């Protein structure tokens, strides 16, 4: 049976920033298979900013919560209404939870249109981009059969920064007196300050402020003309300020937690000399943009979660799966990794 016209393929994935960066692998492969853009159902305030850097994305439909009762969640109503209007087509279901399945059923998604990971794939440890390659090479039914591109070129997540974003970044760097070489630090992640609480030493991804300050001193010893930029969300400002103060108030160490929206951060990652980060979303974005990267792992194993990209990447920690903590990584090991990278 020959392929028939259908709605654009749909990818369903709700996740953190790093999850959405890695999803670029699947989106690009599915777009190539079906020779067009890919619609996405997702969640999270960061998702529009991340997927704006993936040109193969067509329509993005956000849901604020999958677990809120349907009658109390207008974004679920909007999702169901949109699904009913878009018609049939292949649906790559990355989130096979009960709540998302119910929403797809309400929206009239036909079970024969679903592409899902097999139980064997879900039980096999592998990096998420490799999981997405396995999913993306399949079609749900003969009627939606697409092209058959080699999946290997799509393995690395890729983000694209526009010329306009680069121009705006150049102006911002001039205004902030940041035209020197930049080295980025990403000490926190979204769970570090959940509901505004500083979880610091209790969190497996915490690394003491004094450790970050020591790495900053080493970077500036090697590159006196550089600036160390402490990156994070506004909720992380206080923790970044602890690091800046631990660095002795050196004016070359800047806390920019309140001044890095996603478009600026991604443009900055493209131009930075490198980044030292805990295992978190901006590290995956840095890898996708080719920024040289040292990543500190805690409980999550690098074998499942390490960022991949076209640039040099070094991972430290995470050897004892489920038990390791970033705090166990010696400062000297991070400094040596950075110097080898640089």
Shape: elongated
Percent range for β-strand residues: 5-15%
As a whole number of angstroms, the C-alpha radius of gyration is 21 Å
Largest sheet features: 6 strands, parallel
Count every beta strand, where a strand is a DSSP E run of 2 or more residues: 11
Q: Compute the average pLDDT.
A: 92
Please work out how many helical segments DSSP would assign: 13
Task: Give the low-pLDDT segments.
Answer: none
Briefly note the structural class of the backbone: alpha/beta
Helix content: 25-40%
**How do the strands line up in the largest sheet?**
8-7-6-9-10-11
SSE pattern, N- to C-terminal:
EHEHEHEHEHHHEHEHEHEHEHEH
Distance between the termini: 55 Å
Please describe the topology of this protein.
Layout: E1 10-12, H1 17-34, E2 38-42, H2 47-51, E3 57-62, H3 74-86, E4 91-93, H4 98-106, E5 114-115, H5 119-123, H6 128-136, H7 163-175, E6 182-186, H8 209-222, E7 227-230, H9 237-246, E8 253-255, H10 262-271, E9 274-278, H11 281-288, E10 293-297, H12 302-305, E11 313-317, H13 331-341
Parallel strand pairs: 1-2, 1-4, 2-3, 4-5, 6-7, 6-9, 7-8, 9-10, 10-11
Written overview of the protein:
It is elongated, with a radius of gyration of 21 Å. It has 13 helices and eleven strands. The N and C termini lie far apart (55 Å). The chain has a six-stranded parallel β-sheet, with helices on both faces. A five-stranded parallel β-sheet has the order 3-2-1-4-5. Helix 1 runs parallel beside helix 6 (128-136), helix 7 (163-175) crosses helix 10 and helix 8 (209-222) packs parallel to helix 13. Helix content is 38%, strand content 13%.
């Amino acid at each position: 049976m020959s392929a028939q016209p259908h709605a654009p393929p749909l990818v369903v994935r709700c996740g953190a920033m790093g999850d959405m960066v890695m999803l670029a692998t699947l989106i690009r492969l599915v777009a190539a298979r079906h020779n067009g853009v890919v619609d996405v159902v997702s969640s999270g305030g960061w998702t529009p900013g991340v997927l704006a850097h993936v040109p193969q994305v067509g329509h993005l439909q956000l849901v604020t919560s999958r677990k809120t009762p349907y009658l109390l969640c207008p974004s679920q109503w909007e999702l169901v209404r949109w699904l009913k209007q878009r018609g049939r087509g292949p649906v790559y279901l990355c989130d096979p939870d009960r709540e998302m399945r119910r929403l797809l059923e309400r929206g009239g998604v036909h079970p024969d249109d679903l592409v899902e990971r097999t139980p064997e794939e879900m039980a096999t440890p592998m990096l998420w981009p490799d999981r997405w390659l396995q999913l993306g090479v399949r079609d749900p039914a003969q009627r939606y059969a697409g092209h058959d591109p080699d999946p290997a070129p799509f393995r690395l997540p890729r983000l694209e920064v526009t010329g306009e974003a680069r121009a705006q970044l150049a102006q911002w760097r001039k205004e902030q007196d940041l035209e020197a070489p930049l080295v980025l630090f990403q000490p926190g992640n979204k769970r570090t300050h959940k509901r505004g609480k500083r979880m610091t030493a209790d969190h497996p991804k915490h690394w003491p402020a004094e450790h970050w300050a020591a790495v900053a001193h080493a970077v500036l010893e090697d590159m006196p003309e550089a600036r160390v930029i402490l990156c994070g969300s506004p909720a992380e400002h206080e923790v970044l300020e602890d690091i800046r103060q631990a660095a002795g108030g050196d004016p070359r160490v800047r806390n920019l937690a309140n001044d890095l929206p996603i478009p600026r951060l991604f443009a900055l990652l493209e131009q930075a000399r490198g980044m030292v980060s805990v295992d978190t979303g901006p590290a995956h974005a840095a890898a996708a943009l080719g920024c040289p990267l040292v990543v500190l792992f805690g409980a999550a194993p690098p074998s499942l979660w390490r960022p991949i990209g076209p640039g040099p990447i070094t991972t430290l920690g995470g050897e004892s799966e489920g038990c390791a903590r970033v705090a166990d990584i010696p400062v000297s090991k991070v400094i040596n990794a950075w110097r080898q990278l640089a």
